[in-house]
Design brief:
Mean pLDDT of chain A: 91
Number of strands of chain A: 0
Number of helices of chain B: 8
Radius of gyration of chain A: 19 Å
Radius of gyration of chain B: 19 Å
Helix content of chain B: over 70%
Structural class of chain B: mainly alpha
Helix content of chain A: over 70%
Oligomer: heterodimer
Number of domains of chain A: 1
Largest interface: A-B, 22 and 29 residues
Mean pLDDT of chain B: 83
Order of helices and strands of chain A: HHHHHHHHHHHH
Distance between the termini of chain B: 48 Å
Largest sheet of chain B: none
Low-confidence stretches of chain B: 230-244
Shape of chain A: globular
Shape of chain B: globular
Number of domains of chain B: 1
Strand content of chain A: under 5%
Chain lengths: 317, 244
């Protein structure tokens, strides 16, 4: 049984890496349709990754070993973080070794090396991008932890699996704390994945880019890994938000039908979330960098209100 | 939480949203958007009353809900809106000096009111007992808003949201006030609103601004302002521009 569950966990981790470009392609496609463009095909991110993987790597002569190692570290850390999120089934062994705090820590590790790699070459843009990324993440991380603690307080556990199992066992409840935590996590996800109100993923404009600025010197396989890691991160946040707040459909036993239902459910939920993201990106304008702290303060406030409303409104009731 | 019926959960959700709108009111820089937030808070308070009436089968509360909806959700916001337009303040923005600190102070007020209300909650009232802490927090945040905002219209918004909190407390702690009291309070608020409107024009005629901090000055000559807070650091360049 344990071998089978470990195999399932491996399958789930591979599935996350395989699905990540598809989600990115879906978001781009919906966004293009909303803007009256036809857009690139749904599978375009796969073609891009393939092309980049086939290409030769060019490394600046000022680069150190860190520059070459960073793409692998960033990719593996993000992938590991994503593997701890229950995608199809609940009781997988990997979820028992890693809880939400490990997830946040792995993401922080990836971000740390991404920022170091941005500064390593010594170009102006890399340093600028790294400093901006750190500004954003230093404010986003407390908000995310607070939101996560709200969920953890309800389930009395920091393990994602227990949080989801608790939510499933309770059935449908209108929890004010969950509403606030959902709002906070959505804002944090927008900031962390570099989506539109905070960073524009489609721009190479020097004044506004954050994530792109750190990747400017990368090429070939390294660039492919970095881009792929960003796509995995988007999928991670998508699965985290949909599966924690709307866990219905996820497999609670390991039968083929339950897993199939879980797969279809998560695909459907991600499609809806991706379409919502594309809609938000079409209607919102990118904000100035100095407005970002206010944006993330709102996320922190929402997370705090989630904690407080859990204590005030839900415990005694 | 798990054993409450869906309708009562809905009441708690609405009350939590009303508390969130208090925060929005506190930090909202644009007057018109703040008035909209106030209107939504009125609608939410009316909705809480209505759902409490539905859940607790208290028919007299339907009347208060309707009164609140008309008065706080529609009439007073409309009057404020008209005032702001006549005072030509519809594009006015006023930034708080230290928004993050003020918000944190408001969060502390929420915790304080929870601590204050806790012995009362332990007595075990109706299912709405937990909302008492929320309504006290709305009152205190309204007070905080009157302290920290310098603009007269924003201060009136703080005052009115305090009244929202008091009403919410009455509904949640004692299943509503007697009809006579309620009508009296509603009438008072309406009269206060009219008086505030007159005062706005008076203040503007005498000091040519609605920034009530300028009422503290004794001299007629314009002294270059020496601000009460030190204006160093990254968040200040906007503050000087916004005080006018």
């Amino acid at each position: 049984m344990t071998v089978i569950t470990w195999l399932l966990a491996l399958l789930q981790a591979l599935l996350i890496v395989a699905l990540a470009p598809l989600l990115m392609g879906w978001v781009r496609k919906v966004k293009a349709r909303l803007q009256n463009r036809r857009g690139a095909p749904l599978l375009q991110p796969y073609f891009d990754l393939h092309k980049l993987l086939m290409k030769e790597i060019r490394v600046p002569h000022t680069a150190s070993l860190l520059f070459r190692a960073a793409p692998y570290i960033v990719f593996v850390a993000t992938w590991l973080a994503a593997a701890t999120v229950p995608l199809l089934a609940l009781d997988l062994p990997i979820a028992q070794i890693a809880d939400i705090i490990v997830l946040v820590g792995l993401l922080a590790l990836a971000r740390f090396f991404l920022a170091l790699a941005g500064m390593d070459v010594g170009t102006a843009f890399g340093g600028m991008g790294a400093s901006r990324e750190m500004l954003i993440s230093a404010l986003a991380e407390p908000a995310m932890l607070m939101a996560v603690f709200t969920l953890a307080m309800t389930a009395h556990s920091t393990s994602l699996v227990s949080v989801m199992a608790h939510h499933l066992a309770d059935g449908f409840l209108l929890r004010p704390s969950y509403l606030f935590a959902l709002g906070a996590l959505l804002l944090v996800a927008l900031a962390e994945c570099g989506r539109i109100p905070v960073d524009n993923p489609a721009t190479h404009l020097e004044l506004t880019m954050v994530h792109e600025a750190m990747l400017l010197e990368y090429s070939g396989r390294h660039l492919a890994l970095m881009e792929w890691a960003a796509q995995v991160k988007l999928l991670l946040y998508g699965v985290l938000i949909t599966n924690v707040f709307f866990p219905w459909g996820v497999a609670q036993e390991f039968s083929v039908t339950a897993l199939g239902v879980g797969f279809m459910a998560v695909l459907g939920k991600l499609m809806i979330l991706g379409a919502a993201l594309a809609l938000a990106e079409t209607t919102l304008a990118k904000m100035r960098l100095f407005r970002v702290p206010a944006f993330l303060n709102l996320a922190l406030l929402l997370a705090l209100l989630g904690l407080l409303s859990h204590v005030i409104l839900e415990i005694g009731a | 939480m798990t054993q409450l019926p869906l309708l009562q959960q809905f009441v708690l959700l609405l009350a939590a949203l009303a508390l969130f709108l208090s925060f929005v009111l506190l930090a909202q820089a644009r007057l018109v958007a703040a008035i909209h937030a106030f209107a939504w808070q009125g609608v939410l308070v009316a909705a809480v009353t209505g759902v409490v009436a539905l859940a607790g089968n208290a028919h007299h509360l339907y009347f208060s809900a309707g009164l609140t909806l008309v008065l706080k959700g529609l009439l007073i916001p409309w009057m404020l809106h008209r005032l702001v337009r006549r005072l030509e303040l519809s594009r006015h923005t006023e930034l708080l000096r230290h928004p993050a600190l003020v918000i944190m102070a408001a969060v502390l007020l929420v915790i304080f009111s929870y601590w204050l209300v806790e012995p009362m909650v332990a007595q075990g009232l109706a299912f709405t007992r937990n909302i008492v802490a929320v309504s006290l927090a709305v009152v205190l945040i309204g007070l905080l808003m009157m302290v920290f905002r310098q603009q007269a219209v924003a201060q009136v918004l703080g005052f009115m949201s305090m009244e929202n909190g008091l009403f919410l407390a009455a509904v949640s702690a004692t299943a509503g006030m007697p009809l006579v009291v309620e009508l009296g309070v509603a009438f008072d608020v309406l009269v206060a609103m009219v008086l505030f409107g007159v005062f706005f024009f008076q203040i503007r005629a005498s000091i040519d601004s609605l920034n009530v901090d300028r009422l503290n000055r004794l001299t007629e000559v314009e002294i270059p302002p020496s601000p009460p807070f030190s204006r160093r650091g990254a968040d200040t360049p906007t503050a000087t521009g916004a005080s006018k």
